[in-house]
Amino acid sequence: MYPLTAGIVVQTKELWDELHANLQDLPVRVVLEQSEIGQLSVLLEKIDRMRPEVMFVDISGLREPLDQVIRGMRSTAAAPFVLTLNTVAGTDVILNAMRAGAAEYLYPPFGDALRAALERIGNERRNTTQAVRRGGHTLGFMSAKGGCGATTIACHTAVELPAQSKGKVLLADLDFDAGMVGFLLKTKSPYSISDAVRNTQRLDESYWKALVSNGISGLEIISAPLPASRLALKPEQLRFVLSFVRTQYDWIVLDLGRSLSPSSTPAIEEVDDLFLVTTMEVPALHQAKLIVQKLLDSGYGKNRLHLLLNRAPKRFDVTLEELESMLGAPVYTSIPSDYLALNESYSEGKLLGRGSGLGKHFTRLAMSIVGVSDPKKKFSMFG
Ligand SMILES: Nc1ncnc2c1ncn2[C@@H]1O[C@H](COP(=O)(O)OP(=O)(O)OP(=O)(O)O)[C@@H](O)[C@H]1O
Ligand SMILES: [Mg+2]
User: Fold this and answer.
1) pTM (2 decimals)?
2) Contact residues for 300 (Cβ-Cβ < 8 A; gap 6+)
3) In ligand 1, which atom is closest to the CA atom of 255?
4) At the top level of CATH, which class does the domain 4-129 belong to?
5) What 3-state class would DSSP assign to 311?
6) Residue 43 and residue 305: Cα distance in Å, rounded?
7) Contact 232, 198 (CB under 8 A)
8) To test ligand 1's pocket by mutation, which of 151, 155, 279, 338 has the most ligand atoms within 8 angstroms of CB?
9) Could you read off the pLDDT of 337-348 as tens digits, one per residue?
C-alpha cells in the first residue's frame, strides 16, 4: 500500500481505539491529532502546515455543520481526503457525509473497509505524485554478488557528497543480512533503521534525529538492524520511512546489500539512481545480468539503472559496448582495485583518504553523481 500521512480529529473513545488499532498495521503516519475541531480556522491552518493526505473526522457528536468542516479541509493546500467516522451506520447520515464531500464513511468494526479506502486513496496519491517526486535524491548501491564492493562504494561516496553537493546527506544501511556501515564509519547510535520502520506513527523530524549518528559534518548515518530485530520489518513501512527521509535530506545513499532481497526490493522503488556494483569476474557478471533483466522485466526504468565496475583491471578484454550489450544496462564508470590501501585504512578504523589513488576515484564518482543530470559526463572516467 502507498504510504500516507494523516490527521485525526476523534473524540469518541470507541472510535479512537478502533482507529488506532487498525492504523497500527498500516503505513500511515499521523502528523496531526486532536480530540475536537475546536476553532475551525485554527485547525485548517494546522492542516495547511502539516499537510496530511487523509483526515479522519469523528462526526458522531460534531457541533459544526459537516459540509463546512469538509469543504474547509478540502480547500486547504493539503486538500486531504476526509474519512468520516461514526459509531453507527445510517442511510441518511451516510448520504449527508458523502454529499458534503467525504471520501468515506466508516463505522466499527472498520476492518477491511478502512484498509480498502486507504488503498484507493493511496493509489490516487501515487498517480498524482509520481511525476513530481519531491525532496532529496536517493541513490542505491547494490552488490551483484556478495563482496563486489557495494558497501565500500556507498560509504566513500556518502562521505564525499556533503562537500561536493553542499547538501545534507543521509547514509542508510539497508543490508539486513550483513550491515557493515555502522562498523566502517564507527557510528555511536544504538538505534537502527528498524526503529524507524517499527514506529512509523511516531516518525517526525525529532524522532528521526534521535535515531541517526552524526559524527561527520553534513552526513548522518542510520545503521542496519541487529539480527534480533530484523524479523518484523514490513516492506510498506520501509518504503514509508524512505519516503519520509527524502523530505529531510538532499541526498540519500542506501547500501542495499547483495542482490535482490526482501528488504532491497521494496527499497528500490524509492531509489532514483540504482548503482549495481559488479566486478569483472564471470559469476558476478552473470548475477549482474540476471538482476538487470529482472528489474527491467518488472518495469524498472532503464534510465535509473547504472552498472559500476569495481576492482576493474587496467585493461578490459571486451569493449564498453560489448559489456553493456551483454549486461543489458549502461556502465556508469569503473573503479580500480587497491586492496592493500583499503585494507590498511579499514584496519586503522578509517575510510580511504581523498588524496590516495583509489580515494580520488571515489571523489570523482561523487562529483559525477552530483552532476548526474548531464549524461555526457557518465563515461568520462571509463577506461
Ligand atoms: N576497489 C577495490 N579494490 C580492492 N578491494 C576492494 C575494492 N572495493 C572493495 N574492496 C574489498 O572487497 C571486500 C568486499 O567489499 P564490500 O564489503 O564493500 O563489498 P559488498 O559488496 O558490500 O559485500 P557484501 O556482499 O558482503 O555486502 C572488502 O574487503 C573491500 O575492502
Ligand atoms: Mg556490503
Assistant:
1) 0.72
2) 268, 274
3) 22
4) alpha beta
5) strand
6) 44
7) yes
8) 151
9) 999 999 999 999
